[in-house]
Amino acid sequence: MQTHQAKRVEITIEAIMQSRLTEALMKAEVTGFTVLPVLGGSGRSGAWTRAGEIGRASGMVQVICIIRPEKLDKLLEAAFGVVERHIGVVTIVDCEVLRAERF
Amino acid sequence: MEQILSLAATNLLSPIILSFALGLAAALARSDLSVPEAAAKALSIYLLFAIGFKGGVSVSAHGIDAKLGLTLIAGVILSAVLPLIAFVLLKVMTRLSRLDAAAVAAHYGSISIVTFVAATSVLESSGITSEGYMVAVAAAMEAPAILSALWLISRGGDNGQRMDSTLWREILLNGSIVLLVGAFFIGWATGEEGLAEISSFIVAPFKGVLCLFLLDMGLVAGRGLRERSDVLRPGVLAFGLLMPVIGSLCGLGAGLLLGLSGGGVALMMVLSASASYIAVPAAMRVALPEANPSIYLTLSLGVTFPFNLTLGIPLYVAVATAMTGG
Question: What is the chain A residue with the closest CA to B175?
Fold first, then answer.
């Protein structure tokens, strides 16, 4: 089956910054993304979990974008403007998609 | 003194405090006991709705007096001024950076709505009445402290853009405030008749739900202490225990000046003594991301909240009733 090259960008960021990030992505014309909850983890501030939490200050989410390679720089510029000062991780991996016209 | 000790003993052995202690102990002992995030949020929604609604009903029954506006103004002033006191104390007692001190100070100007809910429960159990509009005062005291903290930062030469319209909206329209104030107005509009219609839902189960919620708060506080206790240097720990007492004295002065009832003064003390761990941490993560969240979350939830819940509330209630004569 025919597949097409794409980039998968995973941005793990504080939950409180989610809407700011997704707005920045939309402005950069990255209109397709998926937001996943993060249950817990461990970082420089120690281990944490979302269990029992009622505030959004200590939670993280993961925003996943799959885009055409030529759109990557624009996406990263937009994302960096939001995540630069905040806790989080940005990773980029090569991937392949089946329907290129959707990305 | 005897009255304070008696009230403290009764409070310490109440199901509410024991539930919190259970959660705290379970987390410190590394038990796998946990309350799912969605369940914790549902419990908090219930408590905010119930406390807001009952406050509104109380106002509808007793009417509004001139003190309402003055008490709201006093609450806003306290919320704005307490961070300045906290900041000075932190600079004297600890080696925290200006940024961390300002972030911590913001928490101590704002309020803990769960501490407020627990205090109203203690007042009800003791048969002490309070002004229903204290719910609105609690809502008004959430945000000014954040502005004070940002002002403290700007005085240190930081002219960065810390606030934007989105953050303003998130602070002023955060879910807790909207629910609390909204339920207050529903209770005010529907009065005793409205309460009679839903009392089996928001009155009878209230304490049981509060027990479960405090069990969860104990778990969260215990986990925070277990994972991040290294930030609690002696000076920082001492601040977490001293600041609520100073805050409560400011609240006492304001309550007495306003001529509030014994219960009203006690609630003003509780609001001034408590530290936020929902609204302000979220605002600080956006406005002051460089500040260390471990410090302010551990202090607020791991030190000041348990102190207020176990010893603070009975102390404030006893002092308030003694000073107002009942």
Answer: A55
